[in-house]
From TrEMBL:
Name the UniProt record assigns to this protein: GldJ
GO molecular function: formylglycine-generating oxidase activity
Sulfatase-modifying factor enzyme-like domain residues: 30-243
Region called Disordered, residue ranges: 190-211
InterPro entries: CTDL_fold, Sulfatase_Mod_Factor_Kinase, SUMF_dom, SUMF_sf
Gene3D superfamilies xrefs: paralog of FGE (formylglycine-generating enzyme)
Pfam families the UniProt entry points to: FGE-sulfatase
Length: 250
Protein backbone atom coordinates (compact mmCIF):
# COMPACT_ATOMS: atom_id res chain seq x y z
CA UNK A 1 0.00 0.00 0.00
CA UNK A 2 1.19 3.45 -0.80
CA UNK A 3 2.76 5.58 1.86
CA UNK A 4 0.27 8.11 3.20
CA UNK A 5 2.54 11.08 3.84
CA UNK A 6 1.00 13.60 1.48
CA UNK A 7 0.63 17.25 2.32
CA UNK A 8 -2.75 18.37 3.64
CA UNK A 9 -4.68 20.24 0.97
CA UNK A 10 -8.05 21.95 0.95
CA UNK A 11 -11.06 19.65 0.52
CA UNK A 12 -12.33 21.16 -2.69
CA UNK A 13 -8.97 21.09 -4.42
CA UNK A 14 -8.29 17.42 -3.76
CA UNK A 15 -11.49 16.03 -5.26
CA UNK A 16 -11.46 15.81 -9.05
CA UNK A 17 -13.86 18.26 -10.66
CA UNK A 18 -15.63 18.37 -13.98
CA UNK A 19 -16.82 14.75 -13.80
CA UNK A 20 -20.05 13.47 -15.35
CA UNK A 21 -23.16 13.32 -13.19
CA UNK A 22 -24.14 9.65 -13.10
CA UNK A 23 -27.27 9.58 -10.93
CA UNK A 24 -30.63 9.05 -12.60
CA UNK A 25 -32.70 12.11 -11.56
CA UNK A 26 -35.79 10.10 -10.61
CA UNK A 27 -34.33 8.84 -7.34
CA UNK A 28 -36.67 6.99 -5.00
CA UNK A 29 -36.69 5.56 -1.53
CA UNK A 30 -33.46 5.33 0.41
CA UNK A 31 -31.24 4.60 -2.59
CA UNK A 32 -30.10 6.44 -5.71
CA UNK A 33 -29.93 4.87 -9.15
CA UNK A 34 -26.50 5.03 -10.77
CA UNK A 35 -27.04 4.39 -14.46
CA UNK A 36 -25.10 1.86 -16.53
CA UNK A 37 -22.08 3.21 -18.35
CA UNK A 38 -18.33 3.61 -18.67
CA UNK A 39 -16.10 5.82 -16.57
CA UNK A 40 -12.44 6.35 -15.66
CA UNK A 41 -11.46 4.89 -12.29
CA UNK A 42 -8.35 6.19 -10.52
CA UNK A 43 -6.51 9.47 -10.98
CA UNK A 44 -3.08 11.07 -11.22
CA UNK A 45 -3.27 13.13 -8.03
CA UNK A 46 0.08 12.02 -6.60
CA UNK A 47 1.97 12.61 -9.83
CA UNK A 48 0.26 15.94 -10.51
CA UNK A 49 0.15 17.40 -7.01
CA UNK A 50 2.98 15.62 -5.16
CA UNK A 51 5.39 14.78 -8.01
CA UNK A 52 5.55 11.19 -6.81
CA UNK A 53 3.31 8.67 -8.57
CA UNK A 54 4.62 5.83 -6.34
CA UNK A 55 2.46 7.08 -3.46
CA UNK A 56 -0.66 6.29 -5.47
CA UNK A 57 0.61 3.43 -7.61
CA UNK A 58 -2.65 1.56 -7.00
CA UNK A 59 -4.70 4.39 -8.50
CA UNK A 60 -3.55 4.18 -12.12
CA UNK A 61 -6.42 5.56 -14.25
CA UNK A 62 -8.26 2.85 -16.17
CA UNK A 63 -11.61 2.40 -17.90
CA UNK A 64 -14.45 0.51 -16.25
CA UNK A 65 -17.92 -0.36 -17.50
CA UNK A 66 -20.66 -0.96 -14.94
CA UNK A 67 -24.23 -2.17 -15.06
CA UNK A 68 -26.86 -0.01 -13.36
CA UNK A 69 -27.22 -0.29 -9.58
CA UNK A 70 -28.78 1.47 -6.64
CA UNK A 71 -26.71 2.69 -3.71
CA UNK A 72 -27.77 3.84 -0.26
CA UNK A 73 -28.14 7.59 0.09
CA UNK A 74 -26.82 7.39 3.64
CA UNK A 75 -24.35 5.26 5.54
CA UNK A 76 -26.05 2.52 7.58
CA UNK A 77 -26.83 3.87 11.04
CA UNK A 78 -26.78 2.33 14.50
CA UNK A 79 -30.58 2.19 14.52
CA UNK A 80 -30.62 0.52 11.08
CA UNK A 81 -28.16 -2.12 12.20
CA UNK A 82 -30.05 -2.71 15.46
CA UNK A 83 -33.09 -3.77 13.42
CA UNK A 84 -31.02 -6.46 11.71
CA UNK A 85 -29.58 -7.61 15.04
CA UNK A 86 -33.06 -7.73 16.59
CA UNK A 87 -34.24 -9.84 13.65
CA UNK A 88 -31.46 -12.34 14.40
CA UNK A 89 -29.77 -11.80 11.04
CA UNK A 90 -26.75 -9.72 12.16
CA UNK A 91 -24.22 -10.18 14.92
CA UNK A 92 -23.78 -7.44 17.53
CA UNK A 93 -21.45 -4.57 16.82
CA UNK A 94 -18.86 -3.83 19.51
CA UNK A 95 -18.79 -0.72 21.68
CA UNK A 96 -15.96 1.73 22.15
CA UNK A 97 -14.10 0.65 25.29
CA UNK A 98 -13.57 4.18 26.61
CA UNK A 99 -16.34 6.31 25.08
CA UNK A 100 -19.23 3.98 24.12
CA UNK A 101 -21.90 6.68 24.40
CA UNK A 102 -20.13 8.81 21.78
CA UNK A 103 -20.35 6.11 19.11
CA UNK A 104 -23.73 4.51 19.80
CA UNK A 105 -26.24 7.26 19.05
CA UNK A 106 -29.12 6.13 16.78
CA UNK A 107 -28.39 8.46 13.86
CA UNK A 108 -24.66 7.91 13.75
CA UNK A 109 -23.18 5.48 11.21
CA UNK A 110 -22.67 2.06 12.73
CA UNK A 111 -19.00 1.24 13.40
CA UNK A 112 -17.12 -1.63 15.07
CA UNK A 113 -18.58 -4.05 12.51
CA UNK A 114 -16.48 -6.58 10.62
CA UNK A 115 -16.65 -6.93 6.84
CA UNK A 116 -18.82 -10.02 7.30
CA UNK A 117 -21.17 -8.14 9.65
CA UNK A 118 -21.56 -5.41 7.04
CA UNK A 119 -22.21 -7.82 4.19
CA UNK A 120 -24.71 -9.79 6.30
CA UNK A 121 -26.68 -6.62 6.87
CA UNK A 122 -26.70 -5.80 3.16
CA UNK A 123 -27.86 -9.33 2.31
CA UNK A 124 -30.64 -8.98 4.89
CA UNK A 125 -31.74 -5.85 3.04
CA UNK A 126 -31.69 -7.70 -0.30
CA UNK A 127 -28.39 -6.33 -1.53
CA UNK A 128 -24.65 -6.53 -0.93
CA UNK A 129 -21.65 -4.34 -0.28
CA UNK A 130 -20.69 -2.21 -3.29
CA UNK A 131 -17.91 -3.33 -5.59
CA UNK A 132 -15.03 -0.90 -5.28
CA UNK A 133 -15.69 0.41 -8.78
CA UNK A 134 -19.35 1.01 -7.94
CA UNK A 135 -18.38 2.97 -4.85
CA UNK A 136 -15.90 5.13 -6.79
CA UNK A 137 -18.32 5.90 -9.60
CA UNK A 138 -20.96 6.97 -7.08
CA UNK A 139 -18.40 9.19 -5.34
CA UNK A 140 -17.37 10.98 -8.51
CA UNK A 141 -18.94 14.22 -9.63
CA UNK A 142 -18.24 17.93 -9.89
CA UNK A 143 -19.48 18.42 -6.32
CA UNK A 144 -17.89 15.95 -3.85
CA UNK A 145 -20.31 16.93 -1.09
CA UNK A 146 -19.59 18.08 2.42
CA UNK A 147 -17.22 16.15 4.65
CA UNK A 148 -16.72 15.64 8.37
CA UNK A 149 -13.03 14.89 8.95
CA UNK A 150 -9.79 15.92 10.66
CA UNK A 151 -10.87 15.22 14.26
CA UNK A 152 -8.47 13.95 16.91
CA UNK A 153 -8.55 10.17 17.24
CA UNK A 154 -8.84 10.11 21.04
CA UNK A 155 -11.50 12.81 21.15
CA UNK A 156 -13.59 12.67 17.98
CA UNK A 157 -16.40 10.41 16.78
CA UNK A 158 -18.69 10.12 13.75
CA UNK A 159 -21.50 12.62 13.43
CA UNK A 160 -25.12 11.92 12.53
CA UNK A 161 -25.46 10.87 8.89
CA UNK A 162 -26.68 13.45 6.40
CA UNK A 163 -25.51 16.51 8.31
CA UNK A 164 -23.35 17.76 5.42
CA UNK A 165 -24.35 18.58 1.84
CA UNK A 166 -24.78 15.66 -0.61
CA UNK A 167 -22.49 15.09 -3.59
CA UNK A 168 -23.45 15.49 -7.25
CA UNK A 169 -25.19 12.11 -7.19
CA UNK A 170 -27.34 12.97 -4.17
CA UNK A 171 -25.30 10.83 -1.75
CA UNK A 172 -24.33 11.95 1.74
CA UNK A 173 -21.04 11.39 3.56
CA UNK A 174 -19.21 9.75 0.66
CA UNK A 175 -16.24 11.72 1.89
CA UNK A 176 -15.46 11.62 5.61
CA UNK A 177 -17.56 10.60 8.63
CA UNK A 178 -16.60 6.90 8.34
CA UNK A 179 -14.58 4.83 5.90
CA UNK A 180 -16.82 2.33 4.13
CA UNK A 181 -16.28 -1.38 3.59
CA UNK A 182 -16.58 -2.44 -0.05
CA UNK A 183 -16.80 -5.92 -1.57
CA UNK A 184 -13.28 -6.22 -2.99
CA UNK A 185 -10.15 -7.77 -1.64
CA UNK A 186 -7.29 -5.29 -1.93
CA UNK A 187 -5.05 -5.74 -4.97
CA UNK A 188 -3.63 -3.97 -7.99
CA UNK A 189 -6.35 -3.09 -10.52
CA UNK A 190 -6.48 -4.35 -14.09
CA UNK A 191 -5.51 -1.33 -16.18
CA UNK A 192 -5.54 -2.76 -19.72
CA UNK A 193 -8.62 -2.32 -21.87
CA UNK A 194 -12.06 -1.81 -20.35
CA UNK A 195 -12.99 -3.87 -17.28
CA UNK A 196 -16.64 -4.89 -17.08
CA UNK A 197 -18.16 -4.97 -13.58
CA UNK A 198 -14.82 -5.72 -11.83
CA UNK A 199 -15.08 -7.39 -8.43
CA UNK A 200 -11.42 -7.30 -7.43
CA UNK A 201 -9.15 -10.30 -6.72
CA UNK A 202 -10.71 -13.70 -6.03
CA UNK A 203 -8.98 -13.86 -2.65
CA UNK A 204 -6.68 -11.86 -0.45
CA UNK A 205 -5.68 -10.77 3.03
CA UNK A 206 -7.30 -7.35 3.39
CA UNK A 207 -10.50 -5.71 2.19
CA UNK A 208 -10.72 -2.23 0.73
CA UNK A 209 -12.33 0.68 2.58
CA UNK A 210 -13.16 3.96 0.89
CA UNK A 211 -13.97 7.59 1.55
CA UNK A 212 -11.98 8.68 4.59
CA UNK A 213 -13.42 9.22 8.05
CA UNK A 214 -13.98 11.59 10.95
CA UNK A 215 -10.28 11.29 11.92
CA UNK A 216 -8.77 11.39 8.41
CA UNK A 217 -6.54 14.18 7.03
CA UNK A 218 -7.87 15.86 3.92
CA UNK A 219 -5.76 13.90 1.40
CA UNK A 220 -7.78 10.77 2.17
CA UNK A 221 -10.91 12.54 0.96
CA UNK A 222 -10.62 11.71 -2.72
CA UNK A 223 -12.94 9.55 -4.79
CA UNK A 224 -9.98 7.45 -5.97
CA UNK A 225 -8.12 7.04 -2.66
CA UNK A 226 -7.71 3.38 -1.66
CA UNK A 227 -7.07 2.05 1.86
CA UNK A 228 -7.12 -1.54 3.11
CA UNK A 229 -8.17 -3.02 6.46
CA UNK A 230 -8.38 -6.50 7.95
CA UNK A 231 -11.91 -7.86 7.36
CA UNK A 232 -11.96 -9.67 10.73
CA UNK A 233 -11.28 -6.57 12.80
CA UNK A 234 -13.62 -3.86 14.05
CA UNK A 235 -12.74 -0.19 13.75
CA UNK A 236 -14.08 3.03 15.23
CA UNK A 237 -13.83 4.73 11.84
CA UNK A 238 -15.20 2.08 9.45
CA UNK A 239 -18.88 1.66 8.55
CA UNK A 240 -20.65 0.87 5.28
CA UNK A 241 -23.54 1.38 2.88
CA UNK A 242 -25.23 -1.12 0.57
CA UNK A 243 -26.11 -1.50 -3.10
CA UNK A 244 -28.72 -3.46 -5.03
CA UNK A 245 -28.40 -4.38 -8.73
CA UNK A 246 -30.83 -2.68 -11.11
CA UNK A 247 -32.13 -3.57 -14.57
CA UNK A 248 -32.98 0.07 -15.27
CA UNK A 249 -31.24 1.79 -18.15
CA UNK A 250 -29.82 5.28 -18.22
Amino acid sequence: MKNKILAVLSFISIIGGGQQLFAEPKDRGSQVLITAGEFVMGDTYCADEQSNSDWCSDEVPHKVRLDAYRIDIHEVTNSDYQECFSAGECGPNALHEDRPQEFNRPGQPVVFVTWEDANSYCQWKGGRLPFEAEWERAAQGENPGGAYFGKKYKQGAPQKVGERAPNSNGLYDMMGNVNEWVWDWYGEPETEGVSANPKGPASGKDKVVRGGSWNSPSHYLRASDRVFRSPELRYSDVGFRCVTPSSEKG
